[in-house]
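Our consortium's second objective concerns turning raw sequence data into structural hypotheses that experimental partners can test. To show how far this objective has progressed, the report includes one record in full. It was chosen at random from the queue rather than selected for favorable results. The single chain below, 50 residues long, was entered without modification.
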Amino acid sequence: MDELLIRRIYTNSTQAKERLERDSRILQDRLVREMRLRGITNKGSANKFI
């Protein structure tokens, strides 16, 4: 994560954990839709896109 400059987020409350999980699902859904729009159908193409 450090190499990719991804910041870790630590949560202490149940509400914060739920919010983080919900936000992650939304981003994952958007990523899948964008990849479909671009016609990405295999792992190699997906890794290049990401």
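The partners drew two points from this record. The mean pLDDT is 89. Helices lie at 14-37, 43-49. Both points have been shared with the crystallography group to help prioritize constructs.
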